Amino acid sequence: MIITIDGPAGSGKSTVAKLLAERLKVRFLDTGAMYRAIALAVLRSAVDESDHDAVAKISGTVQIRFDGTKLILNGEDVSSEIRSPDVTAVSSIIASNPHVRNRLVALQREIGLQGSMVTEGRDQGTVVFPDAEHKFFVTANLEARARRRQRELAQKGVQQPVSSVMEQLRQRDERDETRAYAPMKPAEHATIVDTSELSIGEVVELLVRRILGDSTAAK
Ligand code: DC
Questions:
Q1: pLDDT tens digits, residue range 45-57?
Q2: Which of 68, 160, 180, 218 has the largest count of CB atoms under 10 Å?
Q3: How far apart are alpha carbons 122 and 132 in whole angstroms?
């Protein structure tokens, strides 16, 4: 069984996807981490992130795999490094490159062939797994997302005014939603969940009910 969870940054979808996978005892795939790994390789190479051909070359040669929840880039654990603000900014730029997307879509489908999972990203229900059994689009209003992101940053010792976090999220949403290739949008028949006023626990319960209810109904 494949369950897709797409949606913008700060919607809570990563936490929800992880908890849902634990509840259902299936694997969890963080596809954003894969885009981040390529962004890190680009940053380290000193290639300009908007140079499509050079970025395509890098994405075609790097090795990306997961070891449990660790992201391994060319044999090195880069799980912490891919969360830096520089990597965050570059990842949404290189994500518009069709070569990068094709490479990662193929990898994600290979991982999907290994069994049931909850997979989280921007295009999982629309492009990568259009036949997934359950599809969700998890979102929240910009202010709620910015406040959550601000709290996460503060926990890492980074203080930023909510207005600047909002502006960064808005720019990233715009890039993710307007790119020509696999833009972020709800898949057809996806259940849209607005988490602005809900706790993580409430969202997980809602998804579990939907999935178990759906599979009971299908029997
Ligand atoms: O979910 P995240 O913040 O870790 O994702 C980082 C960037 O990668 C995000 O700006 C958009 C891109 N991305 C994508 O285009 N498609 C995905 N399936 C996952 C992430």
A1: 989 999 999 999 9
A2: 160
A3: 14
